[in-house]
Amino acid sequence: MTWVSTTSCASIPSSTLRTCRRSPSTSWFKYIIGIGVGAGAYVLAKFALIFPDLVEGLVLMNIDPNGKGWIDWAATKLSGLTSTLPDTVLSHLFSQEELVSNTELVQSYRQQIGNVVNQANLQLFWNMYNSRRDLDINRPGTVPNAKTLRCPVMLVVGDNAPAEDGVVECNSKLDPTTTTFLKMADSGGLPQVTQPGKLTEAFKYFLQGMGYMPSASMTRLARSRTASLTSASSVDGSRPQACTHSESSEGLGQVNHTMEVSC
């Protein structure tokens, strides 16, 4: 198993994708568990749709499964006339409340984006991200031959974050039996930075549901189910069996369900 982590300013090289497309069985990894933020989450989701057998599980933070429409394109153009590129990127990363409060984290990101990052490269990346296409995924059973992510997925977003609507919509398009939706309160637009401890705990729980780290100790998270339990069984001899369960279902066998976690 290989860990792949992508941030909002990183992606899997096209050469890697071409290598995997030619001969996935001889590529440099057998299967992965991916962790991505923003554009990185979009890239990993796209990779999982193209090579489903190579992806064991995904943790997708602040993902937007939709491409930009004409209205979004016009809004981006108008914001570019009234705002600088660093301010535009900051409004994509942080909630309005965080920007108004001008927290230390916002100040740090503003300094790095404005003074450290190459502005020409940032503009190219921003243009490319805004020209992305829809992932074109649908919840199984809603349309014939629905395309969706086949692996276990944990969606993560901060409460009132700019990406909240996109993550909620992504959750509505995924298989409820293999998807966990984590909305983190008081974490802003970057929960991986503001609440790393809680996110790590949720990630360990997600891995335990996939059959990894069975001996890792866990503290209790507040959990609320958003769907009734659905029994499921599947056997895969070449890869670990993935399952999602809650503490209330321990000892009752392997049970899959959609779970919303609030912490």
Automatic annotation (TrEMBL):
Q: Where is this region: Disordered?
A: 229-263
SUPFAM superfamilies given for it? alpha/beta-Hydrolases (SSF53474)
Where does the record locate the signal sequence feature?
none
InterPro entries, per database record:
AB_hydrolase_fold (IPR029058), NDRG (IPR004142)
According to the UniProt entry, which residue ranges have a biased composition of type Polar residues?
Answer: 241-263
Q: Where are the transmembrane segments?
A: 28-51
Q: Which UniProt keywords apply?
A: Membrane, Transmembrane, Transmembrane helix
Can you tell which superkingdom this protein's organism belongs to? Answer: Eukaryota
Family affiliation: Belongs to the NDRG family.
Please give the name of this protein: NDRG family member 4
Q: Which organism is it from?
A: Sus scrofa
Q: Which gene encodes it?
A: NDRG4
